[in-house]
Structure prediction request, 335 residues.
Amino acid sequence: MNYIILDLEWNQCPSGKKNENKDLKFEIIEIGAVKVDDNRQYVSEFHEFVSPTVYRALHKITKDMTKLTISELDKSDKFNEAATRFFDWCGSDGDYMFGTWGSMDLAELQNNCKYFGVDHKFEKPLVFYDIQKLYSLCFSDGKTRVSLETAIDEQKINKEIPFHTAVYDAIYTARVFEVIDFERVKRYTSVDTYCIPDNKEEEFFFNYGTYTKYISRGFPEREMIMKDSRVRSMHCCVCGRNVKRVIKWYSIGNQRMYCGVGFCEQHGYVKGKVKVRMTHDNLWYGIKILKLTDEEGAVQIRDRQIINREKRRERRHREMERRLKEAAESESETT
Ligand SMILES: [Zn+2]
Prediction:
């Protein structure tokens, strides 16, 4: 199995969001990648610029970061040709897995392929390595994210080539990939959600040992997510048995996330989190993570629920007062 360490540079609407093409917010202008083998050793590299067709001027951020110009980019082929050569270089499906710094590149790659009609079938689910996450798991708490340059500095890797050129960033990412304790973190793959499951049968499920991840199919309405029995269900991440719910799902942050707790007779408390997300084609889906916890962990989630309830009550109270005040004012205006 080879790993394709990918880094893209993209451009966005130079005159701001209101003028952007809603189907292509980010247009790829450079594809850089390094192929490494099973032992994470260098095999070959791919580098192409792309002549842009949607945004014919560079956004200030892109210009500052990449130091590129449109006339330079126009010496290259358009996205279709570059992407086709890129996929040919990657190898046959199933022979390689993508690795990226952070989790944005694969979504943008798929969106550009869709927009420009590049005929490439991505694996479903698209499992990849987020090397930024693996780096955090190896050298930090697994949650903090540092920039690629910070990781390079921390690892005292030679910085003889500039950053923010796709192929160089890919080379740096590959070097970080080489120095991490891969065997220890190998199981912590990531899954891209640009394409979510089409139906119940296809729903994604991953077991990472101490936690599980489930990604639901899409729903037209946000409210439908937590009404679905498969999203709501809770199981023990060790034995897989359904668990007794001890704290029912409650929402925090304006229904963007739900929390709950279950209890397995054999393995103890299981804490659950459902993140509510929307796809590029306006479908709502849930990402459920179930993880073993202890009594203290369960108590924390209950405390959070109490605080949350209190906040909601206060909000309702303020809203009521505001309405009463408005009503009183309009009354005094009419009399
Ligand atoms: Zn259990």
